[in-house]
Design a protein that fits this description.
single chain; two-stranded antiparallel ribbon; 4 helices
Length: 193
């Protein structure tokens, strides 16, 4: 016999990850058999349902990495530092900043706020300077409106006085109750809509 071969009759079995579990249980048998007979049951662990658990490496690989937030400080016109999201300015942003400066200058010249479009350009409807004739026309219009309101108020006041006088006279007649006097019925004007 060679050294590689073993002299014993033992066979070597490969070890599996799931080893059989041996349980000893006591079972009651009928009266004919012994009361305390030991029966050996061999139970094999069954594979669980569902997906197998993921290895630890894979779990760690999918964890969220926390990113650091960098805050940039930019100096403004007054010399103070302000927080800025992105210090790099694009061409569009530079153009908008320039248009905004022009808008502020024109607002100072005209003395009123100006409307802008979405792209930042000044809307010419609000930027146009009014002529002297336009200014005079608005002054005349304001005066005419003022006179019209005063006339309307005077007319309303007169109407209220006449209505008040008539109601007082009617109430006095009812109190005195003159039998021979019958007031003339006034026809109400028909209103068409």
């Amino acid at each position: 016999m060679s050294d590689a071969e073993s002299s014993s009759d033992e066979t070597i079995e490969p070890t599996s990850p799931v080893a059989p579990v041996v349980k000893e249980t006591k079972k009651k048998k009928s009266k004919k058999t012994l009361d305390n007979e030991i029966v050996e049951n061999v139970e094999v662990k069954k594979k669980g349902k569902g997906r197998p658990p993921k290895p630890l490496e894979e779990k760690l690989a999918k964890q969220v990495v926390v990113k650091e937030k960098i805050i940039y400080m930019v100096q403004n016109e007054k010399g103070e530092f302000e927080k800025a999201k992105n210090p790099k300015l694009t061409v569009k942003e530079l153009k908008k900043i320039e248009l905004n400066k022009q808008k502020e200058q024109k607002e100072i010249e005209l003395g009123k706020t100006l409307q802008t479009r979405k792209n930042g350009k000044i809307d010419n409807r609000s930027a146009k300077v009014r002529t002297e004739a336009q200014i005079e026309a608005t002054k005349r219009m304001v005066e005419a409106n003022k006179k019209r309101r005063e006339e309307k108020a005077q007319h309303k006041e007169k109407e209220n006085k006449t209505i008040l006088k008539e109601t007082v006279k009617d109430s006095v007649r009812e109190v005195v109750n003159e039998p021979f006097y019958e007031p003339k019925k006034k026809e109400t004007p028909k209103i068409r809509f």
